[in-house]
């Protein structure tokens, strides 16, 4: 895990978010289709659906002889880290969601939201190098198990608070959030390099919860692209966050076991490299690269 973070191409941490295909039913088996390109390192990747034979298209309208449950083919960013999400909103207010992972191009609606969105949240942690870098910084910073537990708990509280704010409509522009995420990595790396009794070391839960707000707003931006109705959106945010937290916890223990066995000088060097990555991402995002 440790070498992977430093080996990964820095651009891969920038604005990686799933592409979305949304079908909103306006009449029985008739839909308005909209899509959002996937983002990978700031590059937009278009989604290309191939509809079933019983469906016809006129502009943005799709008309089928029966409700579109699938299967149909949806090609997205092949060989890239991002995922593709297909959402169908029905006249009766129900929602159907499908997450396509790498190599999967067949859409079949009806999968449970919890499973799909939790999986999407977990995948975001694994493929989001900036999120992994921040977690690694927390582990480097917190030398004792109690401090690390407090920091991770605070980070989780910050995520949850941000998602609750987002469910009420409080969102920040994606690029602004990405800049603050990079700054959070620089901050935690700087703190991990020193030995001073700073506020971060005295109150790890407080500082990590504030920084967790920033990362949580980034998660909320991903869910916002799915265009879910308000009630489904709140549930979706919580399910996505649950997936994030579960995978995050699975990563923290092995990271702590590895990093805390290293000499202090080696840990400080790792923090220095981590801070360098954070600065690179910061300047890249400020410049719009």
Task: Explain what you see.
It is a single chain. The protein has helices at residues 2-7, 113-127, 129-141, 145-167, 174-193, 199-202, 204-224, 230-259, 264-286, and strands spanning 19-27, 30-36, 38-40, 43-45, 48-50, 55-58, 61-64, 72-75, 84-89, 95-100, 106-107. α2 (113-127) packs across α8 (230-259), α3 runs parallel beside α5 (174-193) and α5 packs antiparallel against α9. It folds into 2 domains: 2-12 and 128-286, no CATH class; 17-111, no CATH class. The strands form 3 sheets. Strands 6-7-2-1-9-10 form a 6-stranded mixed beta sheet. Strands 5-8-11 form a 3-stranded antiparallel beta sheet, with no helix packed on it. The protein has a two-stranded antiparallel sheet with strand order 3-4. Helices cover 54% and strands 18% of the residues. The chain has 289 residues and is of the alpha+beta class. It is elongated. Residues 1-15 have low confidence and may be disordered. It is built from 9 helices and 11 strands.
């Amino acid at each position: 895990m440790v070498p992977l973070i430093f080996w990964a191409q820095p651009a891969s941490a920038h604005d990686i978010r799933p592409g979305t295909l949304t079908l909103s039913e306006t009449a029985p088996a008739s839909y308005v289709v909209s899509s959002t390109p996937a983002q990978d390192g700031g590059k937009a990747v278009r989604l290309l659906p191939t509809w079933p034979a019983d469906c016809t298209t006129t502009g943005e309208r799709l008309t089928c002889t029966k409700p579109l449950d699938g299967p149909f083919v949806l090609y997205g960013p092949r060989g890239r880290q991002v995922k593709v999400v297909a959402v169908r909103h029905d006249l009766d207010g129900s929602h159907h969601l499908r997450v396509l992972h790498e190599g999967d191009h067949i859409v079949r609606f009806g999968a449970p939201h919890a499973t799909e969105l939790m999986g999407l949240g977990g995948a975001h942690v694994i493929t989001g190098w900036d999120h992994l870098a921040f977690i690694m910084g927390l582990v480097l910073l917190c030398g004792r198990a109690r401090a690390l537990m407090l920091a991770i708990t605070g980070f989780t509280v910050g995520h949850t608070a941000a998602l609750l704010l987002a469910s009420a409509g409080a969102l920040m522009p994606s690029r602004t959030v990405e800049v603050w995420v990079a700054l959070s990595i620089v901050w935690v790396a700087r703190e991990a390099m020193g030995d001073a009794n700073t506020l971060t070391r005295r109150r790890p839960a407080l500082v990590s919860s504030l920084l967790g707000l920033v990362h949580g707003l980034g998660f909320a931006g991903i869910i916002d692209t799915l265009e879910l109705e308000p009630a489904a959106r709140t549930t979706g945010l919580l399910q996505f966050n649950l997936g994030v937290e579960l995978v995050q916890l699975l990563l923290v223990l092995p990271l702590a076991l590895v990093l805390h066995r290293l000499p202090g000088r080696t840990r400080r060097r790792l923090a220095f490299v981590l801070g360098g990555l954070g600065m690179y991402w910061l300047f890249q995002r400020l410049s719009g690269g």
